[in-house]
User: Which sequence fits this backbone?
């Protein structure tokens, strides 16, 4: 009976020995390519794990997308029937909407100029919600802009151009409507 137990333990010991030997010798490890004749091959160091850099999440205006400042229901309230098209104006991010035969709208987020840095000709100071603003009607050409303070050195600009280039009063009404819709989403003034 003792001999039987010794034989039963033998495969376990052999398997354990093979496993230990494989761990020490590297069984199952990928073989290195053979060295070219006349050269020596040294083991290559294992590559360091690649760790992606930690980046801070954007904050303030940088965290906003101009084309996503209005929901579909808000776009409808502003007289828009389609989604906007992202674009860049200088270094500022913007979004364009066009209502054929009616008007065009551009919303621009500028991270380089505070409202107090801007002095548009013909502009009048106002407020939209809790944000300081400047309303800039065109000179009878069916255009109007509303510039809003957007925290720190940032502004949001709403530009309306009527397709027929007439009725500046209507263009300013449209710009004011859009400004009121996007204002709650802008960072607070500091």
Assistant:
């Amino acid at each position: 009976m003792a001999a039987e137990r010794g034989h039963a333990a033998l495969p376990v010991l052999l398997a354990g020995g093979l496993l230990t030997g494989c761990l020490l010798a590297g069984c199952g490890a990928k073989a290195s390519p053979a060295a070219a004749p006349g050269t020596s091959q040294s083991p290559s160091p294992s590559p360091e794990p690649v760790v992606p850099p930690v980046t801070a999440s954007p904050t303030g205006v940088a965290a906003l997308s101009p084309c996503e400042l209005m929901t579909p229901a808000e776009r409808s309230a502003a007289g828009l029937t389609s989604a906007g098209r992202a674009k860049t104006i200088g270094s500022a991010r913007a979004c364009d909407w066009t209502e054929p035969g009616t008007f065009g709208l551009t919303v621009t987020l500028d991270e380089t100029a505070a409202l107090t840095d801007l002095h548009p000709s013909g502009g009048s100071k106002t407020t939209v919600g809790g944000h300081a603003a400047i309303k800039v009607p065109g000179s009878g050409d069916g255009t109007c802009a509303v510039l809003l303070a957007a925290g720190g050195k940032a502004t949001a600009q709403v530009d309306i151009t009527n397709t027929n280039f007439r009725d500046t009063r209507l263009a300013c009404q449209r710009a004011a409507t859009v400004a009121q819709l996007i204002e709650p989403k802008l960072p607070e003034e500091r």
Observations:
- The helical segments are 2-25, 72-77, 168-182.
- The domain at 60-185 is CATH 3.40.1000 (Protein Transport Mog1p; Chain A).
- The two ends are 88 Å apart (CA to CA).
